[in-house]
Each structure stands twice: as C-alpha cells, then as structure tokens.
Amino acid sequence: MSKDKPQNPPEKADVKARLMRAAVKLLSRKGAGEATMREISKEAGVSLGAYTRHFSGKEELARTIFIDHYAAMGRAALEAVEGVEGLRAGVFALTRCFCAAFEADPDLFSFLLLSQHEHLSAFPQEETSAPDVLRALIRSALERGELKGGGLDADMEAELLASCALGAILQPATTRAYGGLRVPLTELADRLAEAALAATGMER
Fold first, then answer.
1. Interior angle at CA 60, CA 58 and CA 62, nearest 5
2. How far apart are the C-alpha atoms of 106 and 25, rounded to whole Å?
3. pLDDT tens for residues 122-152?
4. What is d(CA 133, CA 114) in angstroms, rounded to the nearest whole number?
5. Helix, strand or coil for residue 82?
6. Contact, 99 vs 185, CB < 8 A?
7. Is the pTM of this model over 0.70?
8. Using an 8 Å Cβ cutoff, are 197 and 165 in contact?
9. Whole-angstrom Cα distance, residue 174 to residue 178?
10. What pLDDT digit, counting tens, does each position of 24-48 carry?
C-alpha cells in the first residue's frame, strides 16, 4: 500500500496573504485589543512560528494591511474619476466606488475605516489616498468657480469641504459596519453622494 505523500508547506507569500486575510476578519470584528496572535494564526491555518517569521506582532501586521489596502483604495478612486468632468459627476463616481468596495469586502473596508486613526500617520506621503482624490476634485471645483469658498485659502477650503463631504459618506458606512444600518450601501450610494455634495455647499 502506497503511503500518502506529505503535503508541501504553504509558500511564503501564501502564508503572508493568509495571515493578512485572517487578521482583517478578526481585527474588524473583535478589535485589535481582543484578537490575539494565536487566534489570527489559527484562523489563517498556520503556526504561531510562521506568524512571527512574517510579522513581529499585531501592530506590524495591522499597519501592513492598512497601508497596502488604503493605497489600493486610492488607486481605485483615481480610476473611478478618470475622464469624469465636474464635481457632481466626480462625487457620484467616488461614492459609488466606496459603496461597492464596502459591500464587496465588508471586513476589509470596516478595518480600513475603523483603524485609520491608528495607522494613517504611517501612510506614505508619496501615495495617493481616496480622500486625496476627493480633495483634488473639490480644489478644482473651487478654481473653476463651481463651488464658492468661505474665505479660507484654497488648500484649507478644499480640506474643510472634503472633510465635510467624507463625513456624509463614511459616517453611514461606519454605522453599517457596526450593524446599525441593514441596507447595502450600494443601494444608498446616490443618496450619500447628494448628501456629500450638499455638505460642500454645492447647489443642485
């Protein structure tokens, strides 16, 4: 009788990907303070030793996930507004992009949303984030006269209005992440876009 061949150990890249996927799931649902390295390793199906060979701890793992995927979200936002003209069309395109991303991977989007205050300072300045894309849209709208400023210089005006617009989009996403909004964001995207535009003071 032939013996079963031993399974090959997972490739290094595969182990890292599995750890990151498991961490997204557990950190988004339990929080960084509750999810342990051992639990993440078990969820990923790898040994604790394999975990520590790739990451020194939860902090490094969480920061790596955040930077990689926050940058990917920025690239998706750039792609969403490519060729779009005008602030209204740009905000609708971005909002639909955000909402689709949330519903495609709620754990990942929730992780990015809820951990940004902890990891955003580590995001490389040379990378473009989704909020950067929105700020650029608003800055262009101010320069064209499509939006009226409130007396601040152009950079600060764009910063303020982008923050207001993002709040109109991301606060409902936060509510959904915590289970308080039981409607897919993709069904609400255009309403959220209208709310974001209203927050900038743009007239319909």
1. 65
2. 9
3. 999 999 999 999 999 999 999 999 998 888 8
4. 20
5. coil
6. yes
7. yes
8. yes
9. 6
10. 999 888 776 778 889 999 999 988 8
User: Which one-letter amino acid corresponds to residue 106?
Assistant: P
- Residue found by looking up tokens 């939006």 in the block: 147
Can you read off the two tokens belonging to residue 32? 């960084």
Side chain identity at 96, as an amino acid letter? Answer: R
Q: SS3 for 112-167, per residue? A: HHHHHHHHHHHCCCCCCCHHHHHHHHHHHHHHHCCCCCCCCCHHHHHHHHHHHHHH
The total of other beta-carbon atoms located within 10 Å of residue 93's CB is 21
Query: Given the structure tokens 């520590």, which residue do they identify?
Result: 52
Is the separation of the CB atoms in 142 and 96 below 8 Å? Answer: no
159, 139 contact by CB (below 8 A): no
For 45, the 3-state DSSP assignment is: coil
199, two tokens: 């927050």
